[in-house]
């Protein structure tokens, strides 16, 4: 009993000493720090609150948590393995209560996401880290990731900063310069706040737009559209912009926000985040918008960021050998700031999207990261069911995390209840770049797409009988060679696959000329690396 009492007294004494030193230290901060304000005090109090809260979340005792909070530096260690790809998260506002918006989450929800990431070993990187990684100039630890915020809002900064500080994390803020630098605002961060953020070392300031973050008239009938996607309507002349006027407006905005932030905040700008994630793809009245916007952005920014749905896109951002020749990179972001995203859901996504290794086997007892390319799929009864919906002729799914696979053979046990064709993808990069074996009712083709240009490399049309019931399809891709295999027999092979398709993931597609009449069930998948073939 006496020993227990002595132990408690010793712990209490240690705590009192810590608190005394803390108070003394704070008195010097108050005296010497010209920026010390009520907001600073609040932020510092929150910092210690979150340090203690995180330490408690990893099951430390209360006293150990307090001791941990008072120690400077990181409270986790980096992974020892190297990253093959980087996830980037995007947030907008952090609120005390839900407002019904799809872009704002609660502060506690953000905190739980950050705590979960920290517990799992994730650590943040900055803009230069990402750029150098994408070019192959810098190696990063596995589970490196980036946190970004859009719009330059006060609530996101003041609520997120103490959490980031407590965890040793950093973030990027994409700013609307006309909103932050032109007059006082209770909603958007000011010039002084942006400077203070940059000086903290926890934040980097980058471009979002100068004044292109609203919806604008794109027709004489009151229709609205995004700034970077559409020709705007000029009411006093009752016409749309010309292509030249559209291009000049886009270039002026991209250049203007960069100049504003570099000249008035004193920061170096290398990144641009498209408002609404729209880089011209959602145009209503100008189909060339995307090409013009991408060209104008690449002329000014090494990194451009977007977010969109999960169709035909791998979740992470990958380094490829060809990247070393590139100057600009198009960075995909995960919309983790949606209130529907819990910490568990985010962590499940990161796990399923993480780069996968070979050999790979899937019997579809659970979802290992399949993504819809278009239409719908579901995993049910130990099968991947890919099926068209109303007014659709095709459906497809790809495996997230398979992007870096190079030389391999994919074998799949499948059934085609409606006897539709089945398309097997290998070396799939995105919907515009892939190699595939097209198994039709009376033909088998080796096909490919590069920058959206599709071509049949080689095909066979004689004596092809499309199987019924369960059967096996396979595709072998090694070097520039492709083989299409049906029930163990090589039906067609080619040695003329372009070098641009030297790596890529796997996927399946089904189609039919009639709407809502296509279905394929993938029952089992095996993928093995090819090491013994001559790939020259």
Automatic annotation (TrEMBL):
What are the GO BP annotations of this UniProt entry? carbohydrate metabolic process
What is the annotated signal peptide range for this record?
Answer: none
Q: Which domain of life is it from?
A: Bacteria
Q: Any idea where the NodB homology domain is?
A: 142-283
Q: Which SUPFAM superfamilies match?
A: Glycoside hydrolase/deacetylase
Per UniProt, subcellular location reads as:
Secreted
Q: Which GO terms describe its molecular function?
A: hydrolase activity, acting on carbon-nitrogen (but not peptide) bonds
Alphabetical keyword list: Membrane, Signal, Transmembrane, Transmembrane helix
Q: Name one GO cellular component term.
A: extracellular region
Name of the protein in question = NodB homology domain-containing protein
């Amino acid at each position: 009993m006496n020993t227990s009492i002595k132990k408690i007294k010793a712990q209490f004494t240690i705590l009192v000493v810590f608190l005394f030193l803390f108070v003394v230290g704070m008195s010097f901060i108050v005296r010497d720090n010209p920026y010390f304000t009520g907001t600073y005090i609040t932020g510092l109090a929150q910092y210690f609150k979150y340090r203690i809260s995180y330490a408690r979340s990893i099951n430390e005792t209360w006293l150990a948590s307090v001791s941990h909070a008072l120690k400077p530096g990181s409270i986790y260690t980096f992974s020892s393995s190297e990253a093959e790809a980087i996830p980037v998260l995007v947030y907008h506002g952090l609120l005390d209560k839900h407002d019904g918006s799809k872009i704002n989450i609660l502060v506690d929800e953000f905190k739980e996401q950050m705590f979960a990431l920290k517990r799992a070993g994730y650590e943040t990187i900055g803009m230069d880290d990402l750029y150098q990684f994408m070019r192959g100039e810098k190696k990063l630890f596995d589970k490196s990731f980036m946190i970004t915020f859009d719009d330059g809002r006060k609530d996101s900064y003041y609520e997120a900063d103490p959490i980031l500080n407590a965890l040793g994390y950093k973030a990027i803020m994409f700013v609307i310069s006309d909103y932050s630098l032109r007059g006082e605002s209770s909603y958007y961060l000011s010039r002084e706040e942006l400077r203070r953020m940059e000086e903290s070392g926890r934040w980097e300031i980058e471009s979002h737009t100068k004044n292109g973050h609203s919806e604008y008239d794109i027709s004489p009938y009151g229709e609205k559209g995004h700034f970077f996607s559409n020709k705007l309507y000029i009411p006093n002349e009752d016409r749309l912009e010309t292509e030249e006027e559209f291009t000049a407006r886009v270039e002026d905005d991209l250049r203007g926000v960069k100049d504003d932030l570099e000249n008035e905040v004193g920061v170096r700008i290398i990144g641009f985040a498209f408002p609404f994630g729209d880089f011209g793809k959602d145009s209503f009245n100008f189909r060339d918008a995307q090409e013009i916007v991408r060209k104008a952005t690449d002329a000014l920014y090494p990194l451009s960021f977007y977010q969109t749905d999960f169709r035909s896109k791998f979740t992470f951002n990958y380094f490829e050998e060809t990247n070393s020749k590139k100057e600009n990179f198009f960075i995909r972001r995960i919309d983790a700031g949606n209130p529907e995203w819990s910490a568990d859901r985010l962590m499940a996504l990161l796990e399923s999207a993480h780069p996968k290794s070979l050999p790979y086997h899937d019997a579809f007892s659970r979802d290992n990261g399949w993504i819809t390319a278009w239409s719908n799929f579901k995993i049910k009864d130990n099968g991947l069911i890919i099926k068209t919906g109303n007014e659709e002729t095709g459906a497809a799914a790809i495996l997230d995390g398979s992007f870096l696979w190079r030389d391999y053979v994919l074998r799949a046990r499948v059934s085609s209840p409606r006897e539709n064709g089945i398309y097997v993808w290998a070396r799939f990069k995105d919907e515009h770049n892939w190699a595939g074996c097209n198994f039709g009712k009376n033909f088998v083709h080796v096909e490919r797409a590069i920058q959206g240009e599709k071509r049949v490399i080689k095909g066979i049309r004689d004596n092809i009988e499309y199987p019924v019931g369960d059967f096996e399809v396979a595709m072998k891709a090694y070097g520039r060679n492709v083989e299409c295999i049906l029930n163990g027999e090589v039906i067609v092979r080619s040695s003329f696959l372009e070098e641009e398709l030297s790596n890529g993931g796997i996927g399946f597609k089904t189609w039919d000329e009639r709407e809502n009449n296509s279905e394929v069930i993938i029952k089992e998948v095996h993928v093995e690396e090819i090491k013994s073939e001559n790939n020259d």
